[in-house]
Amino acid sequence: MQAAGMTRIRLIALLLSSLLLAGCQDPELYSNLDEQQANEVEAALLSRGIEARKVRAEKGEAFLITVPREDIPDAMATLTNLGLPRHANPSMGDIFKKEGFVSSPTEERARYLHALSQELATTLMQIDGVVTARVHVALPDKHVLQEDVDSASVSVVIIQQPGADLSGYETDIKAIITDGVEGLNDVNRVTVRFFSRELRQAAAEAETPLAMGAVER
User: Is the pLDDT of residue 141 over 80?
Assistant: First the structure.
């Protein structure tokens, strides 16, 4: 009887320890991130003194980010201002993956334009200070008997971080676009517009449900 009682006490103590340990674990801030997204988020938070930690999910190849509960408002404000985690744009290889029946010329053209726009946007998002970029490509229709074909045109929208001024990069952005789009032979056919993201303060974030719990992407 005494041995059975001691065993029961040990089991209860082990259960309480497990519950206490689980309660002390930092909550998830983001989950279902790929490794690059997780690295960017972790580095951004650590550089601002927030004790973020990248953890591999129990199943699959995804990662999650944990932070101390009291740092969630600051972490959310920081990531919002930086535009992190970045949206994972599909590559041209992903978009042109052959599945099912043969695509029509119209479908192939639409997929090509989408893939090209995504590739260019991904390139522009590597510029420091860019939160997100949108690129819209318009290619003229080609006809067999038509010798003179109109130039392509491209519209670019840049959302920049609070306080950033990327207007000085406009010439470089136009050069990147011109070099990346076949049939675009006039830089004046590229328009670039800059918009600034509103600065998000931690105090404001703390009042929203988004900052008070885990966020799954």
Answer: no
